[in-house]
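So, can you check these tokens?
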Amino acid sequence: MAPQAIDGTAGGGVAARLIGVSKRYGDERSGFLAIDRVDLDIRAGEFGLLMGPSGSGKTTLISILGCLIRPTAGSVEIGGIRVDPLGEGELPRVRRRWIGFVFQSFNLLGSLTAIENVEVPLHLAGVPRKERRRKALSLFDRMRLGGKERRLPADLSGGEKQRVAIARALALDPAIVLADEPTAALDTATGHEVMGFLAAYARSGRSVLAVTHDVRLEALADRVVRIEDGRILAR
């Protein structure tokens, strides 16, 4: 099944959907049920927070949404297209086309400059060199990273690294951005700034779901999804 463009209108403004999704690690007797029959819509134009105690299933849930792991049961739809049955060779293409990831530990490539890190997904997508640089420079301007283009990650502050990581996640203009504790390594002011960038991106017509423990960030969110013991408590 070839990926199709998400226009933000499929399913009445639903960018992604989990239907009866469960994820078990290990076998039925000794395994662990990380996600238990979750139904969840990720809406176009919405900045959402996913909150819950440690071990509640937050990272597993966004990993399923991001097509990094498969559910044990249930279905995953992106833009109205069911993606969980796709072959292993197709899933990386789905992720590149539709989904941007922001990680707590930044996951920048230490041997590449800041701007080269942002260009990586563009290069993998076959974008010509001049267009890659133009797009990356535009993102650097948007993230207020001017003058940092040639710095290596080791020479950047934590906030600068996270802004580079966000720029990389947005490089292909994904319909959905998934962020796993993107402010955990940052001070309060920088964390709010980073979440502000993500909120602005969502409200441009895309979708962002960010995992966080910080209740102070709830004021920025359009919706807070709470999860405990693998089950959604409130959405």
